[in-house]
Design a protein that fits this description.
With 365 residues, the chain is mostly beta strands. The chain contains one helix and 25 strands. The chain has a single domain, classed as Neuraminidase, CATH 2.120.10.10.
Length: 365
């Protein structure tokens, strides 16, 4: 191991010691198996009977993004400390390839919305919506959220409902009708003002600099205290790119580099309930050694008390230099946050292991 990397590993170990002292507990790990080669990205919803549902993508084909997969669920009845030992089928595979990338959202009507991608081919990947009126016991018929054919990426735990009631799906468009998937993404939002019954595209399609091969990928959105929205998108430009909307995600300012140094990996951020602070989870690559550039490690958290204008000193919660940490879902429960994310490594594949940790919020600065 090179000296520079040895120093960085020592620093990561210090971050790991903080994690052990500050109350980060692993509560569920879903390992891959021969007939289940990948368990990856999911989302949480709290049910009215006090249980928590965690729904995730359970692969039964190969472990690639095109492998056969369905949506499975686990339940907790003790605030995320323990989880049901076996899967519950939430949604069977509906796609010619798979069904994946869940967002669960408690609507202001009290219903639960289940958003997911139905992936048919390199030409066709679009989000659908189902509604539950009986606390996830059953689901409505699906509603297609993007009528225009094409390949659209919508990450897990991405769909938000604004204070106005508008529902926003942040998406990355990777192809137009009749085109095959291309790496360079364009960020845009799809909007519903009738609780998901009908959808329309926002007016702005955001672009990365021409030099970027990735474009803007896997965008996420948060509502700020003044009513504006902030979007973060992953890029190959060394940082998350940031954009703002003052009209409910219809139009956006040009996307520009943020101070959040990052590989080509998404960031997840949500406001802590009854708090002015936003919790951010991403692969912090500020001052990263050359050996780790481009890798999705470490996994870090930071807080912002000024709606993303500045961030606290990052804290590492995963530190394996060979690890691969991404696609985080966040759920807040009293005094804690549950974080679910891909936590693979070189031995089993970066996206193939799923992990949930329970974070004591009282220990954060």
């Amino acid at each position: 191991m090179k000296p520079q990397l040895l120093v960085f590993v020592a620093l990561l170990a210090a971050g790991c010691a903080w994690a052990e002292l500050a109350g980060i507990e692993t509560v569920l790990t879903l390992e891959p198996a021969p007939q289940n080669p990948r368990n990856s990205e999911g989302d949480f919803v709290q049910l009215k009977d006090g249980r928590i549902l965690f729904a995730y993508t359970h692969f039964t084909g190969d472990a690639s993004d095109a492998g056969t997969a369905h949506i499975a669920g686990r339940f907790s009845d003790d605030g995320g400390k323990t989880w049901s030992p076996e899967d519950t089928l939430i949604l069977p595979n509906e796609g010619q390839q798979n069904t994946m990338s869940v967002s669960l959202l408690r609507l202001n009507t009290g219903e639960i919305a289940l958003f997911y991608l139905r992936k048919n081919s390199d030409y066709d990947c679009r989000p659908y919506l189902r509604i539950s009126t009986d606390e996830a016991a059953s689901w409505s018929q699906p509603t297609l959220c993007i009528e225009t054919p094409g390949y659209f990426v919508v990450n897990n735990d991405r769909v938000v409902q604004l204070s106005t009631g508008r529902i926003v799906i942040p998406a990355a468009r990777h192809s137009l009708p009749g085109q095959k998937f291309r790496g360079r993404g364009e960020a845009l939002c799809y909007l519903s003002d009738d609780n998901g019954k009908t959808w329309r595209p926002g007016k702005t399609i955001l672009q990365a600099p021409e030099a970027s091969r990735s474009g803007l990928q896997e965008p996420g959105v948060i509502e700020l205290k003044d009513g504006r929205l902030m979007m973060l998108s992953r890029t190959d430009q060394g940082s998350q790119f940031v954009s703002y909307s003052a009209d409910g995600a219809d139009t956006w300012s040009p996307a520009v580099p943020s101070p959040l140094m990052s590989p080509v990996s998404p960031a997840t951020f949500e406001r802590i309930p009854e708090s002015a602070k936003i919790l951010l989870v991403w692969n912090n690559h500020a001052n990263i050694p050359a050996e780790l550039k481009g890798k999705r490690t470490p996994l870090s958290i930071a807080l912002s008390a000024d709606d993303g204008a500045s961030w606290s000193t990052p804290i590492n919660i995963e530190t394996n230099p060979d690890g691969w940490y991404c696609y985080t879902a966040i759920e807040f429960i009293p005094g804690h946050a549950l974080l679910a994310y891909c936590a693979g490594d070189k031995t089993i594949g970066g996206l193939n292991r799923l992990k949930i940790i329970r974070l004591d919020l009282t220990q954060l600065p």
